[in-house]
Structures are given as C-alpha cells and as structure tokens.
Amino acid sequence: MAIKDMFSKQKPKKKKYATIPSEAAKQDVPEGIMQKCPKCKKIMYTKELKKNLHVCLGCGYHYQMTAYERLESLLDEGSFRELDADLSTGNPLHFPDYEEKVAADRKKTGMNEAIVTGVGSIDGRESVFAIMDASFRMGSMGSIVGEKIARAVEEAIRLHIPFIIFTASGGARMQEGVLSLMQMAKTGAALKRLSDRGGLIISVMTHPTTGGVSASFASLGDYNFAEPGALIGFAGRRIIEQTIREKLPDDFQTAEFLLKCGQLDAVIHRSDMRDKLSFLLDIHQTGGDKK
User: Are residues 53 and 128 in the same domain?
Assistant: First the structure.
C-alpha cells in the first residue's frame, strides 16, 4: 500500500490559524514582537507564529525550529530522556578559531553540538529520536554529530524500538576534514545494523538538508519524509548547472521536486507530523527482532 493511501485513511483534523495583525498593529511595535514571512511578506505576531509551530499564518512557509522546540511539538509531555548531552567536540585538526566559534554557538543555542538525541514517546509509543539543529554551526556534521547518531541507533537496537531522525544541515563540517566525512560511513553502518535486526527507521528532512548529510543517514530511512519547501540536495544548484551546462527546473532540490521524482515517500506539513508519525508507529508497533 502506498504511503499516501495509508495516510488518506486518517481522519483530517481542523487546523487553527491565528489572526494576522492589521496594518495599524504593524506600526510602532518593539523589536521581536512581530516577524515578516520571507516568502509571502506577511507580518505576524511572533507569539502566534510560535503557537502555529513556526509555520507562516499566511502562506504556510515553514521556518526553522530549534531541536528542543521540535521535540516539544512532537513528544508526549515529560517523556523525553536525553542521551549523551555532555558530548562536545574538540579541535582535532587545530583549525584556526574553531574552538572559539563552537564556544560561541554553545552560548547562543544552549546546546553542546548540532544535534540532540534521546528516548521519548508519541502517544505512548517509545522511539529513539535524533534532532538536528541548524542554529548550531548550520547543523554541520562533525565527529560528535556522527558519534551521537551512532550511539542513538545502538540504543534503538538495545531497546528494540524505532529510530526517528530529523535532519537539518549544511553538510560536512570543514573544520574537521576527513574526520567529518568518516561520519557518513559510521552512521550508515549503524543504521544497517538496526535494519538487519528488523528495526524501523524514519527520516524526516527539514530545511536545509544538504551535502554529506543528504548523501548518508538522511536518505537511509525505511520511510523518507520531508517538510514542505525544504531544500534537499548534495551539491549546490549553481555547481550542478555549470557542470551539466543546463538550466535546472525552478523547483529543483525542493521537497516537492524530490517527491515527484520518487526520492521521498511523502511531504508532510508540520502540523500533521505528530499524527503521521503516531500512525506509522502504531502499524509497526511490534518493533524489531528481540532475539
């Protein structure tokens, strides 16, 4: 049965949208009270935008979310137990100013690295979650990101529960060179071990998912989903056009384009994400091989 056919059996839920402020309300307000959508240019109250899961109240544009905001939007309250929260990177290649930049991102985001991993539940069904955060070094994949993903997958194997990952990344972290690229193989091998044991792997690609991340663990799910409008690809558009000497379609490397080309199973609106994941966890509730 096709994914879209399975999802069509679910009863649709009515979406609640906040009122867009009037022109008069847009004037003379403190900074941060309102935000302008980068796509449709609508102006919204920041508070209402947050209530709407950081989705534009006018056109449905999906803003980036922090890892902890996404966990809060998905998981049962109080169910999350974080894994390896203290793991943090060093400077293995002695790259100039790398440690200072990482320290600045730690202070800005309150995170030790560009990913949060842990165990939590959706409607009482437990899974291991890995949530990337583009606000930390643009979600770049360094050695600690790869290590945390591999450890999270091993925890899913140990507990015989599904593994769900939300990706958001600019690709490999250049300050760690080949050590960063090695994470593509390490995470792929870990997911293969989980798959061999019958474990469920769900990957959700958010904006942006590019470079080595898109070419490795982001694309290795039993189900590969994406949020609307997400940029997904390996090389940049300009590089590809210069290489093949052809003009690419306007929607090239968007989630919708990849869906048309068969590289995704579904594009899921953020407001529907929890229900869709709950549905899949329900039909796969037997879990992995417990031998």
Answer: no
Q: Are residues 52 and 169 in the same domain?
A: no
Residue 27 domain boundaries: 17-63
Asked if 120 contacts 129 with a C-beta cutoff of 8 angstroms, the reply is yes
Q: What is the pTM of this model?
A: 0.88
Structurally, how many domains does the chain consist of? Answer: 2
204, 164 in Cβ contact below 8 A?
yes
Packed helices 143-159 and 177-196: angle between N→C axes, nearest 10 degrees: 10
Number of Cβ within a 10 Å radius of residue 12: 9
Residues 48 and 106 in one domain: no
pLDDT in tens, 98-154: 999 999 999 999 999 999 999 999 999 999 999 999 999 999 999 999 999 999 999
Residue the block writes with tokens 């068969």: 262
Q: What is the pLDDT of residue 76?
A: 98
Listed in sequence order, the residues at least 6 apart from 142 whose beta carbon sits closer than 8 Å to its beta carbon are 89, 113, 114, 173, 175, 176, 179, 180, 183
Please give the pLDDT value at position 7.
73
- The answer to whether residue 4 is domain-embedded is no
101, 189: one domain: yes
Alpha-carbon distance of 38 to 35, in angstroms, equals 9
- φ and ψ at 98, to 5 degrees? -65, -45
Which pair of structure tokens corresponds to residue 179? 């050590």
CA-nearest of 142, 143, 121, 118 to 130 is: 118
* 185-224 residue pLDDT tens: 999 999 999 999 999 999 999 999 999 999 999 999 999 9
Q: Are the CB atoms for 79 and 120 separated by under 8 Å?
A: yes
